[in-house]
Design brief:
106 residues, mainly alpha, 6 helices
Length: 106
């Protein structure tokens, strides 16, 4: 009875139409569009260029820490400095990267 009453109040809406309407397909979370791929490639190239622009001592610290997953102690042994010096180099490198990539950071 309540269904009939609802249908009388909303004559333009059909209950069957709601159940039969096709549901929009969601894009797979792992699929990306060509525009997204191009944007990602541009970001990667920009970050690589910014890292390449760092002084050698700072660049080495960033690459070893961020890309090769080395600890401060491991990096210190590789570049023959103290772990505190590695920490300072990473801090300075991040400051310079933040400054050079500021227009991309929103």
């Amino acid at each position: 009875r309540s269904r009939a009453r609802w249908h009388r109040r909303h004559p333009a809406d059909s209950l069957e139409r709601e159940s039969e309407s096709p549901k929009p397909e969601l894009q797979d979370a792992n699929e990306t569009t060509p525009a997204e791929d191009a944007l990602q490639a541009e970001r990667i190239a920009t970050v690589r260029a910014a890292i390449a622009g760092l002084p050698e001592d700072l660049r080495d610290a960033v690459i070893l820490f961020e890309y090769e997953d080395k600890s401060h102690a491991e990096i210190a042994a590789i570049v023959k400095v103290t772990p505190k010096a590695v920490e300072t180099r990473l801090y300075r490198a991040r400051q310079q990267l933040r400054k050079s990539l500021a227009r991309y950071l929103v």
